[in-house]
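Deviation from plan, reported transparently: zinc ion complex.
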Amino acid sequence: MDLQVCGAAREVTGSCYWLHVGTASFLVDCGMHQGGDKEEALNSAPFPFDPRAIDFLLLTHAHIDHSGLIPRLVREGFSGPIYATSATCDLAEIMLLDSAHIQESEAEWRDRKARRAGRGVEEPLYTQEDARRVPALCKAVEYDRPIDVAPGVAVVFHDAGHILGSAFLELRLEEPGQKAMVLFSGDVGQPDQPIIRDPEIVDKTDYLIMESTYGDREHPHDGHPREELAEILKEARRTGGNVIIPAFAVGRTQELLFFLREISDAHQLDMPVYVDSPLAVRATEVYRRHRDDFDEESQKMFAEDGGLFDWPQLHYTTSADESRALNDKRGIVIISASGMADAGRIKHHLKHNLWRPEAHVVIVGFQAQDTLGRRLLEGDKRVRIFGEEIAVKAHIHELSELSAHADQSQLVSWASHFKPPRLTILTHGELHAAMTLERILEERLIFTVVIAEKGEVFELKEVAR
Ligand SMILES: [Zn+2]
Ligand SMILES: [Zn+2]
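Because the crystal trials were delayed, the predicted structure below was used instead.
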C-alpha cells in the first residue's frame, strides 16, 4: 500500500494524491494549480499516472484547487466513478463548466496572439464538452456512512465544515497481512461559519494527511462582519450611493446573503440587493437544493419562511442586459464576482461606481497581489479598468476577513482530538505555514510530522521516516 503526493506540496493549490491498495489504483482529488504563470503551467504537465488506469476518484470538495483537473483527466481517458457528497457533485458540475469556459476563452486569446506572432495553435486545457462528461461519472455518497469502493478500500465522508458539501475522508485500507487507516483532512473549515455545519471531530487514524493553509496565521477575531456591514449600509443610505461588493460566487456570496438577511430582519436594510453573477445564481440554486447539509440555524431560517435566499429586497440578475441596467440605479447593493475584482462583471460595476464619492466598496475576502481588489485595499487613487483610467473616490471598506479555512489554533484544536497518528503528513500550505504547524503539532500534541514534497511516496505500513 502506498500514497504519492502529486500536488499541493509546499503550496496551497493542485491537491492530488495517488494511492495503491491491492490491485486498486485511485486518486484523492485532482485539483488545478492556481496563482502565477509558473503555477498555471503545471496544469498542462503530464500526469504522473495514466488516467486510463485509475480505477476511481474520491473528491473532498468542489473548489477548483481540488477538482479543477478532472475534465482533463476525463479527456485523457479516465472513466471510473467519482465519489463525492451530493452537494459536491452539484457544485462541481457548475464550477467545472465555468472553469472550462474560462479555459476556452483564455486559449482563444492566446491563440490569436500566437497566430499574430507566427507561432502554432493554442489549445485549451480542456473544453466545456470535457466538463460536461464529468457529472455522469459522479456518484453521490452520504456523510458518515462507510462505503466499500474497491476490495480492501472502504471510505467514510465526514463533514469538513469548509464549503457546502465539503468532506474529509477516512479510508480503511486492507491488503493481505496489512491494514491501515488513512485520513485526508481535505480543507478544514472554520467553526461557526454561517449556513454550513462545523467540522466533524475524529479521534483515530494511522496516517493523517493534513492541510496547513493557515498554519502560521490567526484570523482576526475582533469585530463581526454583520455589524460592520450594517454600519456601511447605514452610511450608504445617508450618502445615497451604491454599495458594491466583489465576492466569490460559491460560498462567499451565500454567506453575505445570510448576513444581509439578518440585517433585513433587524429592519436595518432598506436598499434593494442584486446578486449579479450567473455562476452565483446557479450556486445559490445548488444551496437551495441541499438544505439538509445546513447547520440548525440556517435550516430554521429556511423552514420559517423559505427565506434564506428569498426575501423581498433580494434580486438575481443573469442576463447581460439586466446587469447593464444596474448602471442607472442608485441606492442599491450589488454583489458580483470575481471575488478579487480581477475578472467578471464586478469590473463593470467598479468602473461605474469607483469615481463617485457617495459610493461604497466592500472588500470581504483575501485579495492576492496584483489584483484590482488588492489595489483598492492599498488605497490607490487611480486604477485602470478595461484600459480606462478611473479615479477612486468611493469609500473603500474592509470587512473582518471572512474565511472558509480554519486558522492556526483551529487547525491545532481539530488535530488535538486524534490519538497521535503513526505519521502526520502536512500538505496544502506554503513552506512557512507548514513548518510552523509542524513545530506546534510536534511540541504540543507529540505528533510525528513530515512536510510532503511533490512526488514523494509514502509506504502505508510503518513510520516512513
Ligand atoms: Zn477548499
Ligand atoms: Zn484547497
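The chain has a mean pLDDT of 94. We consider this an acceptable substitute for the interim report.
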